[in-house]
Specification:
Layout: H1 2-23, H2 27-47, H3 51-75, H4 80-89, H5 91-109, H6 131-139, H7 144-165, H8 177-182, H9 185-188
Helix pairs in contact: 1-2, 2-3
Length: 200
């Protein structure tokens, strides 16, 4: 009973935070709300006794990926007014997609009426069971190629983020490593010899 109550509480917060990610006008606020989404999703993983997935979700996504997103959002020159115009223009399409998703969720929730039996709940795990070993066995046997493909996609995303932040913009002073390395001390420092003067 307590697990069901906690599930509905954290699921409601998760849905509210997800809506905040979409509706927030400030991109930084959207990123912070996405962090809240990940925390609530981690709690839902804990409720089904998947501790490893919950910890990985917090450490990897909240601790690394979302920090990267936050820095990228803060470093990019985002025109907030233009984003608002795009949001209003795409609002009807977004509403249509939201209605379709709501219909699909309702269909899944009422699937019992179609004669499909759903499990009553998760069975308790035996003593000494390691979900980390189970995930590793499946991940590196059946899903090794999708796992490597996901790593490549993340690498491409990191390179793209770096390329976006290093683009040349007018009026911004940039560092030229080649010129800095080629500088000689004689070009930067000039020694001046002056006769010492005695104070009157």
């Amino acid at each position: 009973m307590l697990v069901n109550i906690l599930f509905w509480i954290y699921a409601a917060v998760l849905v509210g935070a997800a809506l905040g990610v979409i509706l927030a006008r400030n991109p930084v606020h959207s990123v912070l709300l996405l962090v809240l989404c990940f925390f609530n999703a981690a709690v839902l993983w804990l409720l089904i006794e998947a501790e490893f997935l919950a910890i990985v979700l917090v450490l990897v996504y909240v601790g690394a990926v979302m920090v990267l997103f936050l820095f990228v959002v803060m470093m990019l020159d985002i025109n907030v007014e233009r984003l608002r115009e795009g949001f209003v223009r795409n609002a009807p399409l977004a509403a249509l997609i939201a209605v379709i998703v709501a219909i699909e969720l309702g269909y899944v929730l009422w699937v019992r009426r179609l004669g499909v039996e759903l499990p009553a709940g998760t069975a308790p795990l035996p003593a000494g069971h390691s979900n980390t070993a189970e995930i590793g066995a499946v991940l590196y046997t059946d899903f090794v190629w999708p796992f490597q493909l996901a790593a490549i996609v993340l690498l491409i995303a990191i390179v793209a983020a770096i390329a976006l932040t290093l683009r040349h913009r007018p009026g911004v002073r940039q560092q030229n490593i080649g010129q800095q390395v080629a500088v000689r001390p004689a070009d930067r420092v000039r020694l001046v010899r002056m006769k010492s003067e005695r104070e009157p």
